[in-house]
Amino acid sequence: MLCHFPKIIPVKAKVFIAHLVISFVPSIAFAQQRFSPPPTLVYLINRFLVLVGLLAVIFIIIGSARLIIAKDNEDEAEKGRKTIIAAVLGLLVIGLAAVIINFVVGIYKK
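The chain above was modelled as a monomer; its predicted structure follows.
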């Protein structure tokens, strides 16, 4: 058995829940009407992601400058490294967010 209900739920409730799942899942999965996000919203989200990406690039430049200027000061060099790592991770998250958003919007445009 794939799904185990707790034993405290009565049998009638289990049957009712199973009936709800079986009857509504196909209607949702094969629905003819699809939700389509407004193009303006998608445009604004993409522009916001571009701006945040530019901000991350600026932080990479700031971290690089800190690293170069630090010379022998290990604390400043470590701050520069941490800034660069955080900015690169931010760019990865922003890129993945853009891919996911555009993929989902592409599915709903069909």
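DSSP finds three helices and no strands in the chain.
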